[in-house]
Amino acid sequence: MPERGRAAGRGLTGRDRVRQDGDVTERPRSASEPVVRVPVGLVVLVGPPAAGKTSFVRELVAGGRIDAGAVVSSDEIRAELFGAAPAGADSDAADARIFEERDRRIAARLAAGRSAVAESTNVTPQARARLLGLAGRFGVPVTVLRFDPEVTDLLRQYTERGRTDLTAADVRAYAAVMSRDAGADRLRAEGAAAVHDVPGRRDGVTPAEAAARFVFG
Predict the structure, then answer these.
(1) 1 Cβ partners below 8 Å, 6+ apart?
(2) pTM, 2 dp
């Protein structure tokens, strides 16, 4: 499945599992206590459409945990370049232009010694390889934040958001690719320095509460 802009332990309820250098430890904590420190570098969000990536980064910005300029969203770039419902925006040429612009913006951030957050689905190894290669050019670590809700929760969120650019079948397909090709072990094997699952609805955690668990260098 092609990557489109539209398009670690689990279950953080009770006691959080915090992954550091591949190890998992447990400790009790409050919902607002930051438990994950993300170093300066490239942050890659990985998850199907409607998994909560955009809501999460909005809360990071609202809470002052990252600056708005750190978030490089392929959806936003698509809208900037082609408008809300452009003819031809779904072509291969349009995708190439969108992701070239995404890479340019990420490179500018990394070259300046600042973090960049790549907000797109990134569920396929091919999409991640492009980002990992970009991080390698600047010698910065890659932190992957995984969004992997249960399919029932994913479809519920898709319905609630009223998306018209995707069908429920599309969402299921992305979820299947995520399950097959974006496990934590695989992501580390590809070159991620750290992999963290972002809690969500099934954990009883709101986007604001999830964002409060991360501190960015």
Answers:
(1) 7, 123, 124, 173, 174, 177
(2) 0.83
